[in-house]
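Support request, priority: normal
Reporter: lab tech (M.K.)
Component: structure prediction queue

Hi team, I submitted a job for Cell division protein FtsL from Rhodovulum kholense yesterday, and the status page still shows it as pending. I've pasted the exact input below so you can check whether something in the sequence is tripping the parser. The sequence length should be 150 residues. Please let me know if I need to resubmit or if it's stuck on your end.
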Amino acid sequence: MRSLVYVLTALAVMALAFWAYRENYRTQAALDNVERLNRAIGSLREQLAMQNAEWAYLNRPERLRELAALNYDRLALGPLAPEQFGQIDQVSYPEMVLPDIVLPDELFKSILAEADQPAQSASPTVPVEEAAAASAVPEALDAGDEETAQ
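Reply from support: The job had stalled in the queue. We restarted it manually and it finished. Here are the results:
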């Protein structure tokens, strides 16, 4: 009996050692992946900073004035004036026209055919008048019971 316990304990220790070995390598792989992602993020941040600096350089006001002066004949650009701005209610938006909904004839006919056929179910159908009368009867009995109880 003791030898069985010793063997089972040794197997459990080996299984735990194998599990710890695998978890160690999984952890190292995850750390390598995080390090790779951090390097990629740093590289992208450097590229973004470079593009922001380039954008600021290209949009210098003196450079844009020179470009506007060089291309005045072609573009007819001029300085902005307050008269060039308007109010939002001055904008004429096109009227939204929705098209009519048209169903294909076959689909429309099948829908009408299904609506004309009575629904076939396991329970028998009861006309609305009979259902209303049947539901009113217990209410009348309950009302009568209340009157007799008083």
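The CA atoms of residues 11 and 93 lie 79 Å apart. Helices lie at 2-58, 61-70, 72-75, 105-116, 128-149. Let us know if anything else looks off. Ticket resolved.
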